[in-house]
Amino acid sequence: MPMDKPQLGRSGISVSVLGLGCNNFGVAIDIDETRDVVHAALDLGVTLFDVADVYGGRGKAEEFLGYILGPKRKDIVLATKFGLAMMDNTKNINASRNYIMRAVEDSLRRLRTEWIDLY
Q1: Contacts for 97 with CB less than 8 Å, ≥ 6 apart
Q2: Cα 41 to Cα 11, 18, 28, 47, 84, distances in angstroms
Q3: Which of the residues 18, 58, 60, 78 has the least number of beta carbons within 10 Å of its own beta carbon?
Q4: pTM of the model
Q5: What digits encode the pLDDT tens for the residues 21-80?
Q6: Are 110 and 82 in contact (CB under 8 A)?
Q7: What region holds the NADP-dependent oxidoreductase domain (predicted)?
Q8: Residue 111: left if φ>0, alpha if ψ -120 to 50, beta else—which one?
Q9: Is the dihedral of CA 84, 31, 80, 22 positive or negative?
Q10: Enzyme catalytic residues
């Protein structure tokens, strides 16, 4: 039975009722286990993948997800976020325009994509 995919508010974006949180990719689980989890989620009809630039120890979760998704990227809704400054070793929150622009460009590169659906 296919998973329901309701529309996300008035955005026009439809997402699976279940999403996959990717916080442990790159730290608690390695690339092979990450691949297994992502492929299992896709097989179950999951279309929402939630990651952040700090997940996996400064970007590793985004790198793993981008590598594994490959051409399936076009079939999913990708959410990532920023906030904790990754450019230094502190846990400072940074929401300046310059930081956001740099953070989104870095996330796009790590995720191997040209767009992020939810930021």
Answers
A1: none
A2: 23, 9, 18, 8, 28
A3: 18
A4: 0.89
A5: 999 999 888 999 999 999 999 999 999 999 999 888 888 999 999 999 999 999 999 999
A6: no
A7: 18-119
A8: alpha
A9: negative
A10: 55
C-beta neighbour count of 71 within 10 angstroms: 6
- The C-alpha atoms of residue 90 and residue 87 are separated, in whole angstroms, by 9
Tokens 């809704």 belong to residue = 77
How far apart CA 86 and CA 80 sit, in angstroms, is: 14
Length of the chain: 119
DSSP string, 43-108: HTT--EEE--TTHHHHSHHHHHHHHHHGGGGGGSEEE----B--SSSS--B---HHHHHHHHHHHH
